[in-house]
Design a protein that fits this description.
five-stranded antiparallel sheet; 7 helices; 17% strand; elongated
Length: 485
């Protein structure tokens, strides 16, 4: 634990609550003041605080400090605070240190030591009596508005956890109640860190109040213990005055410095308890509504997922059905193709038979036709030669006319091509001019945008400068108001 130390001397321990192995032990602290001489040594040479502490530790041997720390250090003195195990040895240590001197290496002058028992910062009966007597908003007839409530801080969490609980990092209100019932009947206890809604409750009931409770802290916690009787409160304050908490675990003992004060905030008045309970019920209702909303959203998501799965299953079944239908259709088509192939083979055989018969008939007819054609060819040849001569003359005349026509068409095409090229050149010139005009327009637009952006930047810079001046004026006004207060 962060605020616990090992205890080797338990002779002064008094039992607080046996079932939890809790004890209380006096705090033994002493103040040590080392007066420093005027430094006359070489420039820049300083006194070592570490060496001073080591010299003081050596002077009290065989006794040792649990802790030794520097409280204040100036050019005239060094003030230290030391803590030892046994309060009965405070006088012995004061005798060893008070009015003694110590010499540091590198310095000719000796340092004088003064020592005395440290005063424990703990409220007295006069403190709470005067506080509740002078407070205008307190009614001593009501619980929580009179001296009856302890405000405890830095209590080790594990020391107040329930032995039957699996979570040792959370204190138990029942354990806390049983521990402090040794001083009298406890009316009410409260451990803020156990209330998950406390932060929201404080924010709702006391807006603007800075929250000092520590939540979800595993090492230490704070608590409020309210007694029914004033005498019980007195017993607890007297018993805890100048004490620290000790816990024994077998042969090992640990101590922890705790802070004890009387409650000044009306934390456990009936009104504040009722307000916290009502706020907690509201927050619990809100939490329940949030959980119900989350549950409904999860249920809706689950229903949606289920519907999606059903839709996918249906699609999968539909795909399987279509796949089976395709396979069935493929098989039917395969059967149909097989049937068609068989029919084609039969028809092919029939056609081949018919073709063989027709071929025989055609051969006989061809022989007859060849004889007839030979005779006709002799008659035709003479006629054809005459016709060929006439056709040849006509073709030469037609070819000449065609060449003349082609030459005329060629000239017309060249003229059209020349006109087309001229139009293309004009179109290209017009396009280049349009591109140049567009480029000029873009450049002009960029110049205008650049001028506008420069004007905007200057305007924003002026606004920022004006805002800085206003902020500086506001800070000066605040500082003047604070100084007047």
């Amino acid at each position: 634990m962060a605020n616990t130390t090992l205890c080797t001397d338990t002779s002064e321990a008094k039992e607080l609550y046996g079932p939890q192995n809790l004890f209380i032990k006096p705090v033994a602290k002493l103040n040590i003041c080392v007066q420093l001489p005027q430094l006359k040594g070489p420039a820049g040479k300083a006194i070592s605080n570490w060496e001073v502490m080591e010299k003081i530790k050596h002077m009290i041997k065989p006794e040792t400090f649990i802790t030794l720390k520097i409280v204040k250090s100036t050019l005239e003195f060094i003030r230290l605070e030391g803590e030892i195990e046994n309060k009965g040895k405070i006088k012995l240590l004061i005798a060893k240190l008070d009015t003694k001197t110590v010499k540091l290496s590198g310095f000719t002058e000796v340092l004088k030591i003064r020592s005395a028992e440290a005063k424990i910062n703990f409220p007295s009966k006069h403190d709470w009596d005067s506080y509740f007597r002078d407070a205008k908003n307190m009614n001593e007839m009501k619980a929580g508005e009179r001296p009856d409530c302890l405000h405890l801080k830095d209590l080790p969490t594990r020391w107040f956890s329930s032995r039957n609980s699996s979570n040792k990092d959370k204190p138990s209100e029942n354990v806390l109640r049983r521990v402090f019932e040794v001083f009298g009947e406890v009316r009410c206890v409260d451990i803020p860190m156990l209330d998950p809604y406390r932060k929201e409750i404080i924010a709702a009931t006391k807006p603007g109040v800075i929250q000092t409770f520590s939540y979800n802290q595993d090492l230490t916690f704070e608590a409020f213990v309210q007694y029914k009787e004033y005498i019980s409160f007195m017993k607890a304050m007297d018993a805890l005055r100048g004490m620290k908490l000790m816990c024994k675990d077998g042969d090992k003992a640990l101590t922890a410095n705790i802070k004890v004060d009387f409650d000044k905030t009306k934390h456990l008045t009936d009104r504040n308890i009722r307000k916290r309970r009502l706020e907690r019920e509201k927050l619990e209702e809100l939490e329940r509504l949030r959980e119900e909303k989350v549950r409904k959203e999860k249920q809706a998501e689950a229903d949606k997922e289920r519907e999606e799965r059903q839709r996918k299953d249906e699609e999968e079944r539909e795909r399987e059905r279509k796949k089976l239908e395709k396979i069935k259709m493929r098989e039917e088509r395969q059967k149909e193709r097989e049937k068609m192939r068989r029919m084609k083979k039969i028809e092919k055989k029939k056609r081949e038979e018919e073709e063989r018969m027709q071929l025989k008939i055609a051969l006989e007819e061809r022989k007859y036709l060849l004889a007839e054609r030979k005779l006709n060819s002799i008659h035709l040849l003479s006629y054809l030669f005459d016709r060929v001569k006439d056709v040849k003359c006509k073709e030469d005349l037609k070819r000449h006319e065609q060449e003349v026509e082609e030459e005329r068409i060629k000239q017309i095409k060249e003229e059209e091509e020349r006109k087309l090229n001229e139009e293309k050149r004009k179109a290209e010139a017009k396009k280049r001019k349009a591109i140049e005009l567009e480029q000029q327009e873009k450049e002009l637009r960029q110049k205008i945008l650049k001028k506008i952006s420069l004007k905007e930047e200057r305007k924003q810079e002026e606004m920022r400068e004006e805002l800085r001046k206003k902020v500086a004026g506001t800070k000066r006004l605040k500082s003047a108001v604070i100084m007047k207060r």
